[in-house]
Every structure is written in structure tokens, then in C-alpha cells.
Records
---
Amino acid sequence: MFEQKENTDASRDIEVVEIFDDQGQSMVFEILETIEDGGKNYFLLTSYHEENQESNDEVAEDVFIMQEVEIDGEKMLAHLEEREVMEKIFAKFREKHKDNFNFE
């Protein structure tokens, strides 16, 4: 989990990704960061909130780490199962963004 500090940069572009579960349910996430490690791409995601939603309050959010995979020539995001890899990728994210977030 992390708590986002107030963003004073009004020009910040937000990238989102829509993910469908096995039942076809759609979920929208904000892409916080893409990290390359060992020739693989990992996406750090958090729940997406509409811009008109109150965002001045500091709110704790979960971070999800997914790995980019290619299946039948199509790139997709898959759950990352290896705990050691998750910890390594999250440590890189935490170090890079230590001034932007309060990490729990």
C-alpha cells in the first residue's frame, strides 16, 4: 500500500489501462510506472479515480504489480506470482518515488 502525496503539477498526464477478469468484468487502473528488469516489463498499477473526484485528501491505495506477457502475438498483462520478483520491482519503484509517496 502507499499514500500519494498531493500532486502540485497540474500538467501531469495520467495513463490508464482497462483489464478484464476471467468473467469479463472490466477494471480500470492508473499506470504509476513501467519498470524493465531482466528483459521483462512490469507495470505498477493503482485504482483509477475520475478527475472530478475529490483528490485533495491523502488516501492509502494498493499497488498492483503485473507483468507484460505475449500470448499468440498479443501483449497482455498477467498477475505476477513470484514474491521475490514483486519485492524487487516494488523496491525499485519505492526508491525512485520516495519523494512522491509516503510508503507504509
---
Amino acid sequence: MHDFFHAGPPALRLNAWTGHETAPTPLEPGPLVEWLRRQPTEQRAYQADRVPGRVETWDWRSPQVGWGLVLPDDDSLQPARRATADDAPPAIQRLVAARGAAPVLRWRASDSGIGQLVRYGSDGRAWDLALVSETGIAPWQLPQFLLICAPPDRIPWTFQYAANLGRCVGRLWLQGQALEHYVDALISDWAGSACNPQTPLVWSVDHGQPDITWLMDRAISRKLAEAWRTDPDQDFAGATALWGADATQEQLIAALARTQPGLVVTTSHGMTGPMGDAQQMAAQLGVPVDVSRKVLDLTALCEQWQPDGAIWYAHACCSAGSDTVSAYDGLFSRGSEVGSILAGVAAGCGASIAPLPQRLLGAKRPLRAFIGHVEPTFDWTLRDPHTGQPLTHSLRGALYGKLFEDGQRRPIGWAMAPVFGEVGTLLFEWKRAAAAIDAERPRSLAKALYYQIAALDRQHTVILGDPTAALPQIKPGLP
């Protein structure tokens, strides 16, 4: 075990794939200190459980909890129109109507980079809302569940990252028939869905130590598979695990079609190349790479399997999308391979949503929700570098226990809250370590780096699709 807290920072490994092995990249102390110092200090964790009385925080239908739509603000519209979703696609207007004329919130850019939410009234009044505003659906309140209806170049990922710390947030950006498919399924709560919550599937690529896929396999995939296997009620006896030589795209597609899992979990490298072809890079950004180092064929996947109400968690670089500038810009030298990958993805793909979730959420029988990363995951974020213990217990708890807490079906946004809740603790520890850098206290640089990238890893996890989506309830005694 690397003596992390007594030596300088080791090289970092990431779960990106460009068509060849990416060597671990050592960090230089000078750029590392500058990167740590320029990280925003105003980030904070919000207390999500602010709903008064005995109302359950997962009950989005309650006016004390609420669901709201977030649209870009538009100065060309009169305030009364901005109080409605009239400028949104017809399918989104139907969704708002179906949810009892739910609140429509408008996002405006601000100096903070996070933005400002505004609630307009039909009488022309306006309320500026903060992410720590009182929870509910009254004009001066902010709903607990928020659906962003905009691409990340209109409403940035930074807003979703910040809102995730205290709200249950999803993002949906589909067009045409794809959007109609998703909204129709959402309004009907996936009526007639064939997905089976009792047959979850895990597909785990492992290229062996020291590749990061080996760590993802042990820290995420096998932990979840073990939880399903040892479930005291044997509710997940029909689970499928594909790893080792079985983690091929052919076996994944065949198993999806055969078992119709309610929950799909994949861990692998995510495609981030070719660097010299921006169009092809965007077309396969973040798509899982199998054990044979082949990129998952999205056409074959969609021809042979309909998601039909499943939820997919993909732990891979850029599995959810990319941004115009990586949050890790400056951490690695531009001449390093990792630095070149981060800069190349940002330049080639910009602020975008990855193709895999777009195809699945817009399918004829669509996915309920997709959870993935906008940035890469590094090996340090998966286990404590000092003790070697996996740091994925909150993710396992979310995908195993929280989705069916107390034997009931729970919204995916609510189930993922513990993952985002870790950000506050990690940022607190980071601020303490960062403050010690100037005091030249021993090991402060390494500690600050660890806590910072671990916090960013949780923040860069996002939900695509509506955060109220919940898998069908488990039926005791069924396989």
C-alpha cells in the first residue's frame, strides 16, 4: 500500500479510454498547489431534509415537498408567460399539466457560475430563489425535486452539481419523438413496463491490476452483486453478474434482452477518443468499453433491447457527458497524457450529454433514468488511499437499499441523496487541509488533493431523466 499520508501524491489513474492504455500521471507540486488554491471556496453542502412536519422527503406529490420544472429564462417573454412552460416543447407542457400545473422556475446566469433561479407569477411578480430556500411549491419556496429541461450549454452542469447537494435533480434534453416517448412513459409511470426489479444486472470489466477497472470491479460491482446475493428476503435471486471474460458487449446485450432488468450497473472505461476526430469522439463519448476493448455498439444495443423502465448506473469516464472546461484543468500538465485527454474532450465535445443515455432515454420504451459522470473518476476516489477501504458504501446503499427502503419503491433522486451528501464532509476536510498548506504542515498537500477530488467525483455524478422515477415495487416471493 502506498504510504499516502507520509509521501508526496502518487500518480493518478482515470477511467478514460482513447484506444490504448493510459499511463498513470504523476502530479507536480507547483501546479497542484495552484489548482487546489483556485478551487471555489463557496461550495457548501445543504441540508436536504428541511421538510416540516411528518411529510416524507421522497413524497414529491406533497405540496410541502414538490416537483418543479427548470427552464432557461428568456427576457423576450413577458413575466406572465415566464410563469408557464408555454415556450417549452408540447410534451413538456403536457407533463407540467399532468402534474397539477407544477411550478415553473427560470434559470438565469450569475457571476457565481451556478446561476440564479427565479419564480415568476401570473401577475408579473418575481421571486429570486436560493438553493437553500424553504421547501415546497408556494411562489417563495423551492420544490425538493427539480427537472432541468435544457442542454448543459444553456443551463450548465455547475447548477446541477450545486443543486444536487440539497435537492433531487434530474436533467432531460430530448427532441421530437424521443421526447414524446419519454414524457408519455413518465406520465403513465411506465404502465405495462416489462422491466423486473428483481433481476438486476451488473456488467463489470476488469483488465487486472493496476488498471482502474480492477478497482471499480472490486469497489462497486462485486459489492453490489454480494448485496443482492445475500439479501435476507432473496428478493434479487434472479440477479445476473457478468465479469471477467463474460464482460463482453455481446453478452451484455443478450443478458439485457433475456432478463429485462430493472437496474443495470456497468463499470468500465468510458470512450474518450479518437482525439483527432471531434465528431467521432462526440458520437461515442463515455460509451462503455468491454473486456475485449471494443466500444459498446449502440445500434445493436437499441435494436436488440428496449430499456422499458429500467434504471442504468454507468461508472465510466464521461458516461453522462462533458463540459467546456474540465474541473481538473490545471491539475495535470498540458503535456501529460491525462491532461491532453481532459483538454481534448472539452475542446471536442464541449458542454454536452453523452450518446448512451440520450439513446436509451429517447427509446420507444424508454429508460427511467441514467446515472453517470460528467468527468472521469480517479482511483483515489474509490478507496481510502491510507487504509485501502472502498469508499463506495453510499453508492451501494443507494442502489441496493434506498431504491426499495421499507419494501416500497422510492424515487431515484431521493435514493441517490446519500452519495451527494458526502460532498459536505469531504469539502470540510479539504478546507482544513488546504488551510494547512500555507502553514507547511506535514502531509497537508496530499490530504487536500485527496479530499478535493473525492468531493468533485461525487458532485460530478448526475441523474439524467426525471428524479421522481421509481422502479416497480418488489413482489415478495417472486423470482
---
Amino acid sequence: MTQYRKKPVVIEAVQFDGTIQMAMTLHKQYGDTPITDPDTDAYLGAVIVETLAGGVVVSKDDWILTGVKNERYPCKPDIFEATYDEV
């Protein structure tokens, strides 16, 4: 099996803080959907981010990455820390 290394490309990233304010900002900016309780309509601290593979739940402290072709995808904090350095 051949090994590969990621090319050094710069991406944009934001860490989701779980607040309704950030959820609404993401909704307005990207159309992400805040997750609410179906019975009470109470905000549950997460959003659905549309990715190339469909909607994915992003929870508090997850990162939302925007790739080189403006694709968006979530990343768990431990993976983000192991993979990315701030530039």
C-alpha cells in the first residue's frame, strides 16, 4: 500500500459554540438548520450543515470547515487539532 500526505492548502474554519446566536448566523449565512425539539420547538444546541454528502449534524465545539472548492464539512475537535495549524 502506498502512503500519501495531504497537500498544504489553507482552509477556512469556525468552531461552533452551540449558541442560538451562532446557529442563526450560520442559518442566515449558509442556510444551515438549527435543530429544535419537535414537541416544544426549543433549540437543542446543534445545527445541520449541508455537505457534499448531504446534511450532517454539527454539535457544540465541532469545527465547520470550508474547503478549497467552497465545500463545507464538519470536523471533530480532536481530529481538527491533530490535522490543522492556524496560519
